[in-house]
Amino acid sequence: MNHRAAVLRYLMIAAFIILFFALLGGGLYLMANKPTGSGPDRVPQMTPDEEIVRTGALLDPNREVRGLWIPSVLNITFPSQAGISADDMRAELDAIVKTAREANLNTLCFQVRPSSDALYQSALFPTSAYLSGKQGEAADGGFDPLAYLCEIAADDTEGEPLAVFAWVNPLRVTSAGQDVSALSADNPAVQHPEWTFTYNQAVYYNAAIPEVRALIAAGVEEICRYYPVAGVIFDDYFYPYPAYDKNNVLMAVPDDAAYAEYGGGFDSIGDFRRDNVNRMVRACYDAVKGVSEYLQFGIAPFGIWQNDNGANGGSDTGGMESYSAIYCDPIAWMEGGYIDFLAPQIYWQFSTKVARYDTLVRWWNAKCDEYDTPMWISHAIFNYESWANPGEMRNQIGFARAELSYRGSLFYGYPQLRDNTGGVTDEIRTSFAEDVLYFDKEQITAAPAEITVTVPYNHFRYDEAGTYLLGQSNPADVLYCNGQAVSRTKSGYFSFYVPLSDGENAFVFTQGGEEYTHTIWKNASPPKSGADDTDDPAASGTETAEVAPVLTGASPAALTAVSWRDGLTVSVTANAGAAVTAQLGEEQLVLSPGEVRADGTAVYSGVLPLKVPPAGDVLPLGELTFRSVFGEHALTLAGGEIHAMGDGAVIGVAVTENSTELKVSPTSWYYDDYIPTTAGMTVSAYEISGGFAKILLAGNTAYLDVDGIAVTETLPVGLASFGTLTTEQRGDETCLVIPATQNVPVNCIKEDKTFRVTLYRGYTDADTASLSENPILSDVSFVNGGEEEGAYTVYTFTLHERDRFYGFRVLYEDGRIVIALRNPMEADLTADKPLSGRTVVLDAGHGGSDTGTLTPGTHNTLNEKDCNLAIVLALAPKLEALGAEVILLRGDDSTVDIYSRMDAIDAIAPDFLLSIHQNSMPQNTDISHVRGVVGLYWTESGRSLADCVAGEIALSLGRLKRDTTKQRLAMLRNYKFPSALIEVGFVTSAEEFETLAAPGGIELTAAAIADGVLRWFETQQTGK
Q1: Quick check: 161 and 57 in contact, CB under 8 A?
Q2: Distance between CA atoms of 904 and 821, rounded to whole angstroms?
Q3: 524-528, 782-786, 803-807: which range is least confident on average?
Q4: Which DSSP helix (H) or strand (E) runs through 527?
Q5: pTM (global) more than 0.90
Q6: Cα 602 from Cα 282, distance rounded (Å)
Q7: Most distant CA pair in the chain, distance
Q8: In 842-892, which ranges are continuous DSSP H helix?
Q9: Where does residue 1003 rank: exposed (0-12), middle (13-18), buried (19+ CB within 10 A)?
């Protein structure tokens, strides 16, 4: 009979000793029953000195844990089946270690006691049936899986050593439906059936019984004493998961007798059960620390503690509660100080409505911070292929890494990791490409010493259902808001949404003896402070200042040509009481004042009669002028150049400035308008008023900006004639060349795989259009339309690829209209400087007096403008190192208005433009789940650029890549070259702001953008 059997027989004879050992925490029990033997797989007992330096696989407290769960129950992972040879088991463990190392993992959680059994040599539990096929029988050759795994994990010849945690299921004896008669005779559950109960066809140890708790603790101590593990970890199984009978009635746990015997003083059986689990957990913690203070004891509880009921401090979830369903209370373990870490099993997605990943990570982060407990996150990869977002795991890791309490990740689903199911292994590997080091909170010095709420400002008036708060506090101390711990990032940033009630809403923040109250008012105004609240100058004894003479706002102020029949409506702003006149040639009109305004001025207006031109003619009348006499002051102001139009007349105009706007309506957005015109274009207008020349294009009125035109001598301008379209290659451009008798309005629209060119106020009598071989277009057709003033010709081209489109120019040269399309940009991506010859404009959004959106940051004043500039300054040398010429629209904290930026990039005409921004949300948004990188474009040439750059940022920073979106933004409207605006992340997400603002965050972001640019060049060349 082996030693273990002899020991167990002894225990049966002297059962009273067990109770004694239970009271001692199980330590003496184990000393009396330590394993013996000299087989090659037996791990010798360590001496105290050896314990400290065991194998080098103990956890570094400043190192991120990156672990893999290795289940053995039901032969889920190891061994793949019962009864296989020792060599096969070694090979399977070798493969597991290899897979873990290749995924950049550094920790293994090996299930060594799945069901009151052992996958190691134990004096307390029989050998697992999952090894040999029969419980109590040794594995082939006496193979000891735990010893072998510890040995190969510690071997650094194939990579860094891996820490091994012994994963113990403390209370399960059998799984549902398993044959109880198959249990070994020396199984403690067989020898002591009174220690167990049966629930839903499964057998469990009863945690209420002191001997059970002593047995579990002794088993934990045994592992720690005789194997070089980094520690012990329990999973989520404590009391049985709830089950229902055939009538759908909840089955009761059969522990009434134990409650009657041991439950005195408890108000409910639930409190009693939780206390039993607490006692067991504490006994196991003491057992582990009794072996070595360097060993760790942790638990991976079910992801939901309690759902928030408004008073219990639970999470904003709607799933099963571990507190009331399986009677475990991780908060009590942390509060009692008998747990080294928690690894909550948050096996859901960001999109799981009843239990969102981000909601639970933040909740556990706040609780772990409150009790100074490291947080590991247990992630599900076992069903990853069915998840909607292919980047979900990368997003989960990146999000969790920003949190203050986070110290690591554990992954369940070895086959998926091994097979890279859905690309999950690639996501894990790349997420952990860079190490994260963690230090004691007290070592963080960058954060502010005081509590600061940056958004919204204190005493904010906001009449919405709710708002969000952004801010920062010192991460060295726990932060509470109205008594609840606040989830914060490693730098102490926080962001959360709060509902608002009518009246005063006070948010009381406390931290380390400090208190700060931030107030928001809804449907009420903050009380005024100070004795004098009046704005009346007379009340303060000040004298009224002398009123200055005013004459402004001349209308019309620009070139105007209108029918003589309607006269000319004129207006100007002047001092109330002034004598105001309008003069046009010999005609003078006294203007009438309107209502006196608060500033003491009035608008004076009237209608000037116009001279009558002959029918069909246009009569120049000269410049309109205004005169005001106010007291002793006389002022004059020039208006526009005026023309009177005879009946049936049109007026010829010529474009004098490139990029003169041609609008759909006077108030239309640029983005809905025709493309701007080129200098030299001539056209007939039937009226010029309100700052626009009104012309007819294909039967519709269009509006030409008068600031870029002049009246021609030829009245009217006739229709153009277009010749046969051909193509030419000019350097890096494919040019569509159309002979034309005059320069006419042109519009170009790219939609999906179609590029459409419309020439207005003309027609072609060509029979064909010719396309030579080119890298952009594959086919062309054309059609004439309209009559007389509405005549037009439309050419429709088919693109080779939807996204292989890079902008265009419209030229008129030597009697030809030329549409010059940029060809795909070639780059030798194997060269040291693949971007040689390319010009890039980088735009750091906002700047100077324009801060952009406010952020949670306080100590480093990183508002959006600062983040944008920092990224651009880090990105520029990276692109220059790749050979590009880089031009910055701002290189310091200066104010550059949007029109100056647009003028600058139009003059530079770069190969492409990137505008860098940070995202935010309206103040009434619940920002709890808003996150991600957004690539924006307007002209179709920017779509692929925006998509590639946003994708690389998401990949590098572990963020959600939101849909690449077409949006009307001034920096993106230039159609001549690809432009993309990148919203790097949401500053309303403390986690995303942490990633950016943390040391190295700016550099990481800049490197990702540079990679995105290279990726874009790759897609141009490969089409993928």
Answers
A1: yes
A2: 21
A3: 524-528
A4: none
A5: no
A6: 83
A7: 130
A8: 864-881
A9: middle
